[in-house]
Task: structure prediction
Amino acid sequence: MKTEISLEIIGEGANAQEKFYGNIITEVLGSGMRDAVIGKSARPKPWVAKITGTCPRFGLSREFVKYRKDYRNTSGTGNRGVRAFYMLESGNLYEVNEQKSWRRSERYFLAVNNDGDTIKMTKQEAIQWVTDNI
Result:
């Protein structure tokens, strides 16, 4: 069974502006000047990763899940309302980084059961799930 989750991409319009102006600065002044002129973005970005096993360096190994963007309910500036849709499959465990505001995000784990329902887990529960299932 498959299920789809949706995460908001807060600041998508600002991200596009930064990329546009950053490319111009890089073209005119060189790649070393981009960060000096416009700075680095402090905004968290949403993502979903499928847990594929354990990793000695990072604890869990993961594959990032591709998403589909939806601009139907976006604000005029494109900074709110842009959604990323991720397709999740039952029998798998996923780590989610969800934007809650411009500067704050929340990371958690989701499993998908055979009915397509998502089950939120703590990191300890996720590690136990990986130990039992992978």
Observations:
- The CA atoms of residues 71 and 82 lie 5 Å apart.
- The radius of gyration is 18 Å.
- The beta strands are 2-8, 47-55, 59-64, 67-70, 83-89, 93-99, 105-112, 118-121.
